[in-house]
Amino acid sequence: MQILLRALLIAACFATIGGCSERTDNAPTEPDAKRPTVALVMKSLANEFFVTMADGARAHHASRPDDYDLIVNGIKNETDLAQQVALIDQMIASRVDAIVIAPADSKAMVPALARAAAAGIVIVNIDNRLDEEILGDYGISISFVGPDNFQGAEMVGSYLAERLDPGQKVAILEGVPTAYNSQQRTAGFEKAMRDGGLNIVARQSAQWDQTAAVTVASGMLVQHPDLAAILCANDNMALGAVAAINQAGKAGDVAVIGFDNISAVQSLVRDGTILATANQHADLLAVYGIEYALELIHSNVAPADRATPVDLITADALN
Predict the structure, then answer these.
(1) For residue 33, with 0-12 CB atoms within 10 Å meaning exposed, 13-18 middle and 19 or more buried, which class applies?
(2) pLDDT interval class at 79 (50, 70, 90)
(3) Which residues contact 162 (CB under 8 A, 6 or more apart)?
(4) CATH class of segment(s) 149-279
């Protein structure tokens, strides 16, 4: 009977918001009055980047179990904005002390986070920066802890440009268009291509998704058969671009770059199938956010942004 009840509760949870919170502290239902509860709210756990992020957070908590309680949340896919809003509201109802969030959208999450701020919850923004104008409209200030996506994309794009000839044609696979990190990575790619004298002939969103990237990249290859490279705003889309290139019989003829350094691309970087990617240290990104949230809880100071590292990853770096 207990097993049946547990199964029904799990099913109800997924039916309600499409995903569940995971407590990693084995604490009772009511938070410990002597230590704060931090909720990590991420994007899609179908993306290895966020799985790595969650693992890093759990490892950090395991090393400091008496300092705070941790709740780990994730949504089913990158574009399910309603589900992430529901998770934020669930954390407000649970009366957590802090929310560390990688928002699925830079604008759409702000109203829910404003409700959290009004409830006295400390909020730290990681990975994808929230829209400053919308934050201003709601009268809230939320610190951003994360890498410079523009700089990282420009770095990877410049590495590609050095290996192409001026005038060659390239295409860009963007993430979700309303996501700040997608916008910044696209802008960084564009600057590197302009500086290298390369010709951007196509730019289209594949929604951060590998399957969508196969379709979009295939269309680009048909429309531009002399395409020299595809620049991808994350590694999932880079994997999709590689699949499209292979299906078109162009393996070795079209260079690919990505962003995130997930383990699934590392063998492809080593053998040159993917020329380069950027490592923004997913395992540490949530940790930086959690540590800053704890600092804000204890110090009650005004939040400020904090930069985190982003590194170029090539075959030489991995071998």
Answers:
(1) exposed
(2) confident
(3) 196
(4) alpha beta
